[in-house]
Amino acid sequence: MAEFAGTPTGRGAHVGVVASRFNETITRRLVDGALDALVRHGVALDDIDVVWVPGAWELPVAARRLLGSGRYDVLVALGAVIRGDTPHFDYVAGEASRGIAQASEEYETPIGFGLLTCDTMEQAEARTGGAHGNKGWDAALAALEMSDLFERLDATDAE
Ligand code: INI
């Protein structure tokens, strides 16, 4: 039996953080959390690019553009879709989630998923430095762990 798991070690990793400006007070906190996690786990600031897009809808196409450049080992996608009173929520949240997953699968590259989908601003605040931690931090950590896991699997394939 063989067992594989990654640990979030970021040394040498080139990371793209793609973040949406919509609900910017929330998404800036997600970006801060992600950067904190990346740097604390060994990613050099010079190896991180933060790319801003207008809204969550634009996250997938930006992620594809970044992965297509071949410059990044992992991405972290950050945004906040807050329900309010409009059915727009379901379209934006659904398509953004689906598109981020598809980009990650197509490029076989980890994308930490830090897209908040909340009913209220209070719920979003609780997930960006409040009672529920910071989902930007969590997404960055998951991306680094997956990157390390893939490196370990690559090393096994090469044996
Ligand atoms: N974009 C978000 O990131 N969050 C939202 O809550 C949101 N709502 O509610 O509309 C939102 N809409 C904008 C969308 O992402 C696009 O930027 C826009 O439609 C232009 O393409």
Helix content: 40-55%
Bound molecules: 5-nitro-6-ribityl-amino-2,4(1H,3H)-pyrimidinedione
Q: Superfamily at the CATH H level?
A: Lumazine/riboflavin synthase
Radius of gyration: 16 Å
The helix/strand series, from N terminus to C terminus, equals EHEHEHEHEEH
- The chain-level mean pLDDT equals 95
* Percentage beta strand: 15-25%
- Class from secondary-structure proportions: alpha/beta
CATH class call: Alpha Beta
Unreliable stretches:
none
Major β-sheet annotation: 4 strands, parallel
CATH topology tier name: Rossmann fold
Output the number of helix runs: 5
CATH architectural group:
3-Layer(aba) Sandwich
Q: For the largest beta sheet, what order do the strands appear in spatially?
A: 2-1-3-4
Shape by Cα distribution: globular
Question: Termini, distance in Å?
Answer: 16 Å
Q: Give the number of DSSP strands.
A: 6
Number of domains: 1
Describe this structure in words.
With 159 residues, the protein is α/β, with parallel strands linked by helices. It has one domain (15-158): Rossmann fold. It is built from 5 helices and 6 strands; from the N terminus they run E-H-E-H-E-H-E-H-E-E-H. The protein has a 4-stranded parallel beta sheet with strand order 2-1-3-4, sandwiched between helices. Helix 1 (24-40) crosses helix 5 (135-158) and helix 2 (59-68) packs parallel to helix 3. The protein starts with 14 loop residues before the first strand and ends with a helix. The mean pLDDT is 95. It binds 5-nitro-6-ribityl-amino-2,4(1H,3H)-pyrimidinedione (INI). 5-nitro-6-ribityl-amino-2,4(1H,3H)-pyrimidinedione binds next to strand 3 and helix 3.
